[in-house]
Amino acid sequence: MEAGKKSCPYCAEVIMTEAILCKHCQSDLRQKIRISPGWPRPSERRSDLGSKIVAGIFIAITLYVVFDFYVSNTSENKERTQAREAAERCREEVDSYSGPEVGKNIVADVCRKLEDELRKSLSHSP
Ligand SMILES: [Zn+2]
């Protein structure tokens, strides 16, 4: 058989490899190249990864909000312990995070910033 040609699966006539419609029997040849169900498509895997990253960012935002709450709503006596608890919870969140490395890095980065803020806020109140 010549290069770039194949035989039609329906009528066995020789047709072009790129043909999407057989010129002999008018059969739709695109159906032959469909991905079988159950095979994970690249787009699905990408969206799964994306949702995990979104989950990581969501955790990071939640931790920020929680930290702000601790700082603005606690008395000076309680501030140190509760802010430290927030930072510890943040580190636990990083340890238990099972998503992709990029999401974990986002949470870990927020934890570092959180601890920086913590140090700063504690130095303001002797
Ligand atoms: Zn055909």
UniProtKB/TrEMBL annotation:
Domain of life, per lineage: Bacteria
Please provide the record's keywords in A-Z order.
Membrane, Transmembrane, Transmembrane helix
Transmembrane segments in this chain: where? 53-71
Q: What is this protein called?
A: Zinc ribbon domain-containing protein
